[in-house]
Design goal:
By secondary structure, the protein is of the alpha+beta class. Helices cover 33% and strands 32% of the residues. The protein contains 5 helices and 10 strands, in the order ααββββαββββββαα. It has helices spanning 2-9, 15-30, 82-94, 159-165, 169-186, and strands at 42-51, 57-63, 68-70, 72-75, 99-101, 108-114, 117-119, 122-124, 127-138, 151-158. Helix 4 runs antiparallel to helix 5. The longest helix is centred in the C-terminal third of the chain and has 18 residues, at 169-186. The relative contact order is 0.22.
Length: 187
């Protein structure tokens, strides 16, 4: 499977990412329907860490479900091309039309716990998002639009300001700080 090959090529940033990457690979090999929500334990998602041309700002959305500023992304819903999923979700959630990959390689890998919640009046049990993140680029002068059923704001932040805006401590400390550190290593 191409995704397994890409994940095997990812050089983990730290022990957390190494273990998350290995878990994702194991689930891809063993879990049925992991690209759909039919798998109640875990399913594939793709996220976008969207930066401006100078790599000094990141685009985030205020996600209503998590009550926090966060990256953009979503469920694979059967699509095994996770770069395409990340691009589609980024466009839908930001309103931006002109988003391009900085590279087509996977930027980061995460295993993310999702607590039980209600979505559109239906209870969704706790599960795990097996997530890959792509580094994308957009023009910070392009007008953004919210996606009212998912977010109530879309905004560019300086890298450190993005971290300060996030109200989910674990995501800030274990995911977004890692993404910023990986980005700074590229610059």
């Amino acid at each position: 499977m191409e995704l397994i090959r890409q994940l095997e090529q990812l050089a983990p940033f730290n022990e957390e990412e190494a273990r998350d990457r290995d878990l994702i690979i194991e689930c891809l090999r063993r879990e049925p329907d992991v690209f759909t929500r039919a798998n109640a334990l875990a399913h594939m998602t793709a996220s976008a860490w969207i930066v401006n041309r100078d790599r000094t700002k990141v685009l985030m959305a205020y996600h209503n479900l998590y009550d926090s500023w966060a990256w953009l992304g979503g469920h694979a819903d059967g699509d095994e091309d996770l770069l395409r999923v990340a691009m589609k979700e980024a466009r839908e959630e930001s309103g931006l039309a002109n988003i391009v990959p900085v590279t087509e390689a996977i930027f980061s890998a995460e295993s993310l716990p999702v607590f039980g919640h209600f979505k559109r009046g239906v209870y969704v049990p706790s599960h795990t998002h097996l997530n890959v993140t792509y580094l994308l680029q957009a023009d910070e002068t392009e007008i953004t639009h919210i996606k009212p059923d998912e977010n109530s704001g879309v905004k560019w932040f300086a890298l450190d300001e993005a971290l300060a805006a996030v109200s989910e401590d674990w995501m800030r400390e274990h995911i977004y700080e890692k993404l910023n550190a990986k980005l700074r290593a590229l610059i």
